[in-house]
Amino acid sequence: MPEQTREADVVVIGAGAVGENAAERTASGGLKTILVESELVGGECSYWACMPSKALLRPGTLLQAARSVQGAAQAVTGSLDTDAVLARRDSFTSNWDDSSQVKWVDGAGIELIRGTAALSGPREVTVTDDDGTQTRITARHAVVLATGSVPTVPRVDGLDAIDFWGTREATSAREVPESLLVLGGGVSGCELAQAYARLGTDVTLVARGDLLAKFPEPARRLVEAGLRRDGVRIRLRTASSRADAYDGGVTLTLTAAGADGETGTADTVTGAKLLVSSGRHPALSGLGLEGLGLDPKHLGVDASGRVPGVDGGWLYAVGDAAGKAQLTHQGKYQARTTGEAIAARAAGELDGDPEPWSRYASTADDAAVPSVVFTDPEVAFVGLTEAQARERGLSISTTELPIAVAGSSLYADGYQGWAQMVVDEERKVIVGMTLAGPGVGELLHAATIAVVGEVPLDRLWHAVPSYPTISEVWLRLLEKYGL
After folding, report:
1. What is the pLDDT of residues 346-392, one digit of tens each?
2. Beta strands in 1-121 (DSSP E)
3. What angle do CA 472, 476, 482 make, to 5 degrees?
4. pLDDT tens digit sequence for 225-245
5. Are residues 331 and 469 in the same domain?
6. 117 vs 94: CA distance, rounded Å
7. Which of 364, 399, 424 is the last residue of a domain?
8. Cα-only R_g, the chain
9. What pLDDT score was predicted for residue 256?
10. Using an 8 Å Cβ cutoff, are 390 and 422 in contact?
């Protein structure tokens, strides 16, 4: 097998959005950086996750927004144009062509190598291309794992014999199926169930537990109501015990799922397609981590992204590969801090662990992670839930109320929304915020700034929300809190 040898300062494995950010930071810090990718440069978010899924969702959300305002509702006489929706989706993926991303990599002074990478020794990466040619790269300073995550497939009898969709197939589909079974009530399951229902598909969603289980109950119920309004049939606390193919579709055998296992009489649901959306886990197998004495199931990193237990401290992981929040924006944030830390260590400007809240530490991973569920209504969340805050031993209070302000009534007739503020009573700062309702995703960054900045409530009182906007819910929350 042909072999080549190379040297670089930094090797980044994985050219998704997270890997691109890490490589850009090390390259801009003056380090010779090689970026390795086996698929499309730009990764999951660009071609199969964030961008195409939101492109599928947006037209339906916009149509519903128009139908929610008298005067506009009368002007809406048709349904979504499926072909146009799919064509617009394709434009956001550049038709699954990564040439523009490759051009960006080149312009950033980063070298791209195509192939499958594995760690073959200390500071050493071996890349095998499609022709079997191997390139062995020695990294003088760091190797960064930015390999993302892969779907977790549940144990369901017969599923391995079914040609089912994962989220990749659902977001890149060329046609809209007549009917769809969605297995999983997490973020992707809810978003894609609604997207396809609004494109005319008959959708049934099956969840072993509740929808969006990490979010507060009122937010979950608003999303459930939105899905049901769009015709999605929802089976909660229901186990899928078997999957069978039949001529033209899939049958799932279902039973009620109780705390002590499956109970009740089995029944079945059928669909032309089955989408399995039951979570993801870090893509770390086949990377050679075992050869370094590391467990790929429990990798772990410090605040600068460095993997502990590696002599010389040269191995880093960012994004989904690091086992933290599986969110593109959070992974890019980690990549920026990690890239900066690697460059600083190489230049002798950083010795040991970085200071909290420095540019070399992804401190927000601990208690200030923002996320948005792009269903209609949306759910926007940052920080700690009530339960998480109590588990950390914080003395907290919660303030919650419906979103019913002048701005929300103007936004949509019959607007339904909900907000919750979690306050650390010892410090008198917000540690968590949940917003649910149409359009609330655009309110989230204000909450994120309040949490990250630890803005005292008596100071936040002077941040006057514009009238009439939905952001006036901030005033109502602070008033109910007692300010």
Report:
1. 999 999 899 988 999 999 999 999 999 999 999 999 999 999 999 99
2. 3-13, 33-37, 111-114, 116-121
3. 145
4. 999 999 999 999 999 999 999
5. no
6. 26
7. 364
8. 24
9. 86
10. no
Question: Domain span at residue 353?
Answer: 3-42+98-150+281-364
Q: How far apart are CA 303 and CA 334, in angstroms?
A: 9
Sign of the torsion angle spanned by Cα atoms 405, 409, 412, 414? positive
Q: Inform me whether the pLDDT recorded for 158 exceeds 60.
A: yes
Query: Do residues 106 and 234 share a domain?
Result: no
CA distance 216 to 259: 20
Is a pLDDT exceeding 60 seen at residue 73?
A: yes
pLDDT at 266: 82
Total structural domains in the chain? 3
- Going by C-alpha positions, the residue among 182, 231, 186, 176 that lies closest to residue 213 is 186
Contact 367, 447 (CB under 8 A): no
Q: Among all chains, which residue has been given the structure tokens 């599928």?
A: 56
Nearest to 448 by CA among 385, 377, 392, 364: 364
Q: Which two tokens stand for residue 92?
A: 């956001």
pTM score, whole prediction: 0.95
Going by the DSSP 8-state scheme, the letter that residue 307 receives in this structure is P
Per-residue pLDDT, averaged over 65-80, amounts to 96
